[in-house]
Amino acid sequence: xxxxxxxxxxxxxxxxxxxxxxxxxxxxxxxxxxxxxxxxxxxxxxxxxxxxxxxxxxxxxxxxxxxxxxxxxxxxxxxxxxxxxxxxx
Length: 89
What we know:
The protein has one helix at 67-72; strands spanning 2-11, 19-20, 26-28, 37-49, 54-65, 78-87. By secondary structure, it is mainly beta.
């Protein structure tokens, strides 16, 4: 069993840039704010090897909205939880 704890900070490289999704689609335009600080995120990932072929994992993260999101969106914090099983052959 392993536990990984992470804390990440997110900043815009340029005040002319926005926030993009995994498909490089624009999620939030940066034209209405000069703030660079997007937010930070605390995360805990627990992985448990159940045997030779199976691993069970759970992930929890809490995202704290920063100045940019507070100025351009409702700016609320977000919680994320997921769990999955991996089979390796």
